[in-house]
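Tutorial, part two.
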Amino acid sequence: MSLIRVLHAETLKLKRTLAFRMIFVAPLLVAALQFMVVWNQRRPGADFNLWEMISKASLSIWAVFMLPLLITLETALINGVEHGEKQWKHIFALPVPRHAVYAAKFLTALALAAASTLILCALIVIVGLALIRLRPDLPHAGAIPFVWILKHAAFVWLASWLIIAIHIWVSVRWQGFALALGAGIGGTFFAIFAAAARVGKYYPWLLPVNVFMEERFTTALLLGAVGGLIAAVIGCVEFVRRDVV
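Running the prediction step on this input gives:
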């Protein structure tokens, strides 16, 4: 019951931020970019497959760039209210366990990332249907691959749990909004250089996009989901034992 009450409070607080609007804006940017890419193709080859192109390209861009940046912003906003208004002492004085507070923030971040990823899936279908109607010269695209889109979107989301756990801890531990954003932008930026390295298989900010690579799929999914839960528990223990926030 404590967790439910805290989750409700987190939802109410997020209405005062950009968090809810960003879950629509971020996937819309990816979908618009993919629409323009396909729209500007003059002579697609015989092997061109519309659904394969827009679904895989959109989810790949989402996994390597937009989702990590969205997680960075959302987690900073989730904890920005407490930091900005100095409410941590007030929250700790309430008859609510500290671990429920931390768990609610982690679950809220998971839900926001999942909602935004699902919105992207819907936009992929909308963009594909719009292109088929506006560009009848495109090769036959076949049936809409609903199962493939939803399955790989779920994989990307599960692999992002470790990023979410890291950013929840960073944004709770330090009150600087710029520090939380810097950590996420830096992690995403260095992912470009780590992609081809051996460490890229284990680099947290590359795990979501690694699910598209057969040789890295299992590691990405296990390290992302299980590692994210372990990191969240470690962060929660540190949060509960801390005397001053």
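The CA atoms of residues 85 and 115 lie 28 Å apart. In part three we will examine how such features are distributed along the chain.
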